[in-house]
Amino acid sequence: MRKTLLSFLSIGFASMVAYAQPQCTPDPQYTDSVYGAWPDTVTNFPPATAGVYYEGVLNFKAPATVTADLDPSGQFVGSPIQSYTVTDVTGLPTEYLYNCNAANCTYSGGTQGCATVYGTTSTVNTYNVEIFIDVTVLVTLFPGLPPTPVAQSTSFTGYKIVVSNNGAFLDENGNSLLSAFPNPAKNEVAVNGLQSLINASNITLTNVEGKLLAKRNIGQNQENFDMSHLNAGIYFVNVAHANGVESIRIIKE
Predict the structure, then answer these.
(1) Multiple choice CATH, 166-252, 2.60.120.650, 3.90.180.10, 2.60.40.3080, 1.20.810.10
(2) Taking the chain (253 residues) in consecutive chunks of 10 residues, what is each chunk's mean pLDDT?
(3) DSSP E strand stretches across 73-124
């Protein structure tokens, strides 16, 4: 089966421990989508801070049947997707775990789900994550006979988690581009280094579910956000620029 058929499935995550874990709820704004993953590999995982607890939510949905855009060859178009299961995740930051909202990280075709990545690590690095999944498609091999389950295994790259010190964002070469201070913050947080990004256009503040809380155009190297009215928790400052979007994880006390 074509790898393009399976690439949308690369954001499911296996439950790895038996004790209490953060439990996400699928975001209803994606209910009407045919399939997808939010965020995708362009937006990617929010960055993390060494020594600070990290938690982020990924939403995803698989189609009920194979669509033409997922399988341009047409070989499996229209075949039902019975299920998919995440079998392994490698390259994670030390002591980070994943928890799916479904048992055994197994989902039926056409269903919406979510997963939480969480943990605390002391190791500063850029972690390239590889995800391994099994997918079962029901294929009609001969007219008049029941469809045959066809299992496929594949792995995907493209997701990464950047762990930095004290809220500083690091590029893949380890160079600091953005910083936020203070972090954790009680009243106001200052984001510095905006002009180090090529054609930085706007900066937003979102919560852990991706809800937009504030947005403004960038006109200087520093922007301040008032957080005094926000509940304690995890937030993200996101900077759009010529090469994509960079984010800083903010802890509100």
Answers:
(1) 2.60.40.3080
(2) 44 40 87 84 79 81 84 85 85 89 90 88 84 85 89 81 64 64 92 77 86 88 92 88 77 92
(3) 81-90, 96-100, 106-108, 112-119
